Amino acid sequence: MSAERVRWGILATGGIAAAFAADLVDLPDAELVAVASRTEASAKAFAERFGIPRAYGDWASLAEDADVDVVYVATPHSAHRVAAGLCLEAGRNVLCEKAFTLNVREAEELVALAKERGAFLMEGMWTYCNPVVRRLKALVDDGAIGEVRTVQADFGLEGPFPPSHRLRDPAQGGGALLDLGVYPVSFAHLLLGEPDGISARAVLSEENVDLQTGALLSWESGALASVHCSIVGGTSISASVTGSKGRIDVPDGFFFADRFVLHRDGRDPEEFVAAPDHGARNSFRHEATEVMRALRAGETESPLVPLDGTLAVMRTLDTIREQIGVRYPVEARA
Question: Which residue among the candidates 98, 115, 137, 245 is catalytic per the annotation?
Answer without folding.
Answer: 98
